[in-house]
Amino acid sequence: MTTSLKDRVRSATTANPQRITARSLTPEGIIPAQQADDPHAAQTAMDFLRRYEQHFAEALPAHVDRDNFFAAVRAGLPPLGRCSPASVLQALLACARFGLVPDGRRAAIVADEGLAVFVPMYQGYIELMHLSGQIDSVRVGLIYEGDEWHYEPSAPPPDDFTHKARVELPREQRGEPILAYAFCWMKGGARSQVIVLSREDAEQIRHEHSRAYQRAQESGRLDSFWHLRFDDMWTKSAIRRLPKYVPMSPELAALAAADDAGDTGSPQILHAPPATREAAWIAARQDAEAEAPQVPLRRVSESRTVLVKRNTLRRRAIRKGRR
Length: 323
Hints:
By secondary structure, this protein is an alpha+beta fold. It has two domains: 5-120, no CATH class; 134-246, no CATH class. Helix content is 48%, strand content 14%. The protein contains 14 helices and seven strands. The chain has helices at residues 5-15, 41-50, 53-59, 66-76, 85-97, 122-129, 171-174, 199-209, 211-219, 225-228, 230-241, 250-264, 277-291, 297-322, and strands at residues 107-112, 115-120, 135-144, 148-151, 161-164, 177-186, 195-198. Strands 3-6-7 form a three-stranded antiparallel β-sheet. Strands 1-2 form a two-stranded antiparallel sheet. A hairpin with an 8-residue loop joins β6 and β7. α3 runs parallel beside α5 (85-97) and α6 (122-129) packs parallel to α11. The protein is globular and about 55 Å long. The N and C termini lie far apart (80 Å).
């Protein structure tokens, strides 16, 4: 009996639910230690991934260029050299199923205690937010000390929030970022609530909810995204609060679940969409067409009969006039 990749991952996870750590892995990662400095090591890892080309072909939505996806994968492989091949495969497949390129902007694949982890970035969240079909645009940003801004939650939108970035000022004069914000303009002209997070808010989220940050602190590595790209994670935290106030697509909910699973060391592929986005859209259109009211065949036939009779009478009148 054949089983899917998701079934095999679920079975392995059920059998051993504890988090896999670097100490519990076999010594060999996707790039063996003796090949770590070999310039061809990335190609060796790519050859391993090519064995699962059919899985990636089924996972990647049609709008994602396959060459661009694998170019980003190849560029990101060296830091994953000591990660288990299975974790690299499941992280990349999860990334592919969400239709995000692991280029460091939309998503990234990072090493965490011998595991490869799929980390969606805030640009990836924005891409999936548009899938609800009701969001026209998503606005995010950081407010710096030297910027002009106004935030008055009790005022009606859009007067409750304005931000004028002083990009013409030198970096020193703009100062440090003090707030992150995110909001959406809906199709039809309405605007969502504005999410505003201070640096203190972001640090509290980091301390209380990021297991990756805590592990990096405890180990002394200081290599989590909260350490390396604090501003991006700050902005991402604001984005992740938006779905409470705007229509959320199923893909966006799944992305948040996969993001949380990666932080706790759980298999992320279990939360990824089971089929390509195009297949879901086709199914949705078919359902909508099936539910659309149908004109009774008898009435259609009658209308066609009336139309034929009218045309026949018109042609007869024209011929009679010519005589």
